[in-house]
Structures are given as structure tokens and as C-alpha cells.
Specification:
By secondary structure, the chain is α/β, with parallel strands linked by helices. The chain has a single domain, classed as Response regulator (Rossmann fold). The chain is 45% helix and 18% strand. Strands 2-1-3-4-5 form a 5-stranded parallel sheet, sandwiched between helices.
């Protein structure tokens, strides 16, 4: 029987950044879904039940903080406890602490990380969560 592919949601409104990250994760063997605004991210997250989410904070419709607040309150434990890595250009301590309060597994500032480093962080978090 084939091993179940790990599902990752990339919620990122910047088309080029999204495409680069999606391509990198897909080529590493992940089943990748993409959302381009917060509302879409929430819908895909609830339907697709990803194993991990890369979440931008500044997105149209609904920001990443609101998406995460919604998810963390979900009655389905698999959804509510989904590992999340923030992928944002917000890097103030206030934003990082606000995100950490929402039980995230990592915070990457887009400008400082290559797709290879993002992929490695994804693998680390998945390994810590037994995936």
C-alpha cells in the first residue's frame, strides 16, 4: 500500500512567493494545496485537513492571525492542532509573540529564508509531530 502523502497548505497572497514555495514542497513529495487569501485558506484548511500549514499573516479577506484564531477554536482536534509555520514579512516582537500565543511551531521571515530552509523547517516540524 502506498504511503499517504503528507498534505501541506500554503496560505500566501503573493503569487510568486506562493508558486516558489508550492513548487519546492511538491518536488519534495508533499501534496500541496494553495490559498491566496485568508478566507480561502480557512475553507481549504477545514475541508482538506492539511498535516501542516505555512501561513502568511498579511492577506486579503482575513489576516493570518484571524485564520489561526478560527482554527485553534475548531471542535475537530486534528484541525485545531494542525502544526503551523508562519511565513511572513512581519518581524516585530509584538507580531511574533502574538503568533506564538496561537500555538505555532515556527516563525520564518520571508526575506531571510530560502525555499530550501523553508523545506527543512517543514520537515523538522513534521518529524516533531510524528509525520
Amino acid at each position: 500500500m502506498a504511503e499517504k502523502q503528507t498534505k501541506i497548505l500554503v496560505a500566501e497572497d503573493e503569487a510568486m512567493m506562493s508558486e516558489i514555495v508550492v513548487r519546492k514542497l511538491s518536488s519534495a513529495g508533499f501534496d500541496v494545496m494553495a490559498a491566496y487569501d485568508g478566507k480561502q485558506a480557512l475553507e481549504i484548511w477545514l475541508k482538506g485537513k492539511p498535516d501542516l500549514v505555512l501561513l502568511d499573516l498579511i492577506m486579503p479577506e482575513m489576516d493570518g492571525f484571524d485564520v489561526l484564531k478560527n482554527i485553534r477554536k475548531n471542535s475537530d482536534a486534528k484541525i485545531a492542532n494542525t502544526p503551523v509555520i508562519i511565513l511572513s514579512n512581519l518581524w516585530s516582537n509584538k507580531d511574533i509573540l502574538k503568533a506564538q500565543d496561537l500555538k505555532i511551531q515556527g516563525y520564518l521571515v520571508k526575506a531571510y529564508f530560502t525555499t530550501e530552509e523553508i523545506l527543512n523547517k517543514v520537515k523538522d516540524v513534521l518529524a516533531q509531530n510524528g509525520k
